[in-house]
Amino acid sequence: MSEKTVTLHTPQVCDICGHRIRAGEKCRLIRDDFMPMLTFFEHLRCPADMPVKQPNHPEHPMLPASCNP
């Protein structure tokens, strides 16, 4: 898959959230290298996309065995 940031000349539908991407708006164009007729459009900051994943910090981290009394 190759991806490129483009400015649209015609409105498209975002393949992640299904909302309209307006003409003149920048978006991500994703094209399959093996089947060039498959193209996908995504907002650069898609409203339905997952926010940045927070790191997993346990409340009580396990200490190495040598440090446990």
Quick recap of the structure?
The protein is mainly β. It has no helices and five strands.
- Mean pLDDT reading: 79
Percent strand: 25-35%
Task: Write the element-wise H/E pattern from the N-terminal end onward.
Answer: EEEEE
Structural class: mainly beta
Cα distance spanning the termini: 53 Å
Number of continuous helical runs = 0
Strand order, sheet with most strands: 1-4-5
Overall form: extended
Report the helical percentage: under 10%
Rg, please?
Answer: 21 Å
**What does the main sheet amount to?**
3 strands, antiparallel
Write a structural description.
The protein is mainly beta. It has a domain at 2-43. It is built from no helices and 5 strands. It has strands spanning 2-7, 12-13, 20-21, 26-31, 39-43. The strands form 2 sheets. A 3-stranded antiparallel β-sheet has the order 1-4-5, with no helix packed on it. It has a two-stranded antiparallel ribbon with strand order 2-3.
Task: Give the arrangement of secondary structure elements.
Layout: E1 2-7, E2 12-13, E3 20-21, E4 26-31, E5 39-43
Antiparallel strand pairs: 1-4, 2-3, 4-5
